[in-house]
Task: structure prediction
Amino acid sequence: MLDVPLSLLDRARTRTGEPDALALTGVVERSRRAEALGLRRFWVAEHHAVPGVAGSAPAVLAGAVLAATAHLRVGSGGVMLPNHAPLVVAEQFATLAALHPGRVDLGVGRSPGFTAPVRRALRREGVAADDDAFARDLEELRAHLDGGAEVTARPQGADVPLLVLATGAGLGVAARLGLPVVVGGPLLAPLLDPERDGDGAAAALEALAGYRRDFVPTAREPRPRVVVALDVLVADDARAAADLALPEAWAMAEARTRGAFPPLEPVEALRQRRPTGSERRHLETAGRTTVAGAPDEVERVLARLVDATGAEEVMATSSTTDRAALDASDAMLASLSAPAVAAARERAAAGRT
Result:
């Protein structure tokens, strides 16, 4: 059994033939079940004008999740800081934390809009990624949250931990500012198959070692902390788990080949599709970066990943078309974590008293 806590990140994925609103209510329902399962956090994301994602306003959706739960930590995975004034982000999350003390996280990233029209709508067209600008925004955001900025954000006094979504260069920024990191994407992928990509795995481990080596302690964060985030799907057997992973894999293949990230489609329809050569390559890549299998296999892979990275937490970013199957996957995943099992028992006992 894993000795680290487990969490979920839900991007509010839409499904073919369903209204966007159902994706949002599905997020809230899933968060209630996550709390009962003893999971540590439940995060929501920021995507703009993407057909396959209804989650565009993380502060608003996090507020709905907080209102529907009682113990779960809730946050953003993440707010894309270049799209917002740091003062406004601080005000939004300080408000959430004032209403739900001790339960709010603020994960931030710096990804641009998905397409050029979206970047124009966000007033980000032509603005290149800049480590120094991101670092300045992070420092300003932290100053607003701590009450040390030029203007005083309200409400004050709320405790809002700040975490950085880092896939590469962001690790250096987080280290200099003494902030914990959530690591996923291309940095983490080689570690799932180090025999296939030994150089990539070595580079990933060196990047994490550099983050820990260069970390500047603060009163709030005296030591570096790493959370690993990846797609994880669990089913009774490997074939069923592979089916659960198929909708997201196809959506990623379409995004890479056609520039459109679509709603999730039913597995039965996807089995009938014949991928092009390019689509097949992207499907294979998605398969290598997703942990999908029976509980014992998933436990082995995650334990190996935690051991390699020194991660203190695993955050599953999973989605699939069948909501009932996703619920079952969440339950089986939670059963693999000793902290989650203990928390679930404690909450169940408290509910009986």
Q: What stands out?
A: The longest strand covers residues 226-234.
